[in-house]
Amino acid sequence: MQEFRVKIGKMTCVNCSNAIERACKKIEGVEEASVSYVNSSGIFLIQKDEKRKEILAKIKNLGFEILEDEQSLEEYKIKKHIELRKNLLLSIVLSVVVMYFEMFDQSFFSQNMQMFLSFFGIFYCGRDFFSHAFLGLKNKNLDMNTLIVLGVMSAFVYSCLIYFRIFDEKHLYFSGAMMIISFVLLGKYLENKIKLKAESYQKNLEKIDTKKARILLENDEVKEISSAFVKAGDVILVKEGESIVADGAILSGSAEVDMSFLNGEFFPVLKKENDEVQAGGIVLNGMLKIKANKKAMDSTLEQIKNLVFYAGNIKTPLATLADKISKYFVASIIILALCVFLFWLFRANLNTAFLRACAVLLISCPCALGLATPIALVVASSNAAKNFILLKNPAALEKLSQIKLAYFDKTGTLTKEELEIIKHNLNQDDFQKLCEIETLSSHSIAKSLSKNTHVELKGEGEIVVGAGIIYKENDDTYFIGSRYFLDSKGVDTKECDHFFNQFKNLSSIKVYFAKNSHCLGGVLLDSSLKEGARELIVGLKKQGIKSVILSGDNQESVEKIAKELDIDDFYAQLKPEEKLQIIKNSKEALFIGDGLNDAAGLSLASVSMSFSKANELAKKTGDFILIKENLANILYCFSLSKKTRKIIKLNLFWAFIYNTLCIPIAAGFVPFIALSPHFAALAMCFSSITVVLNSLRLKNI
Question: What pTM did the predictor assign?
Answer without folding.
Answer: 0.55
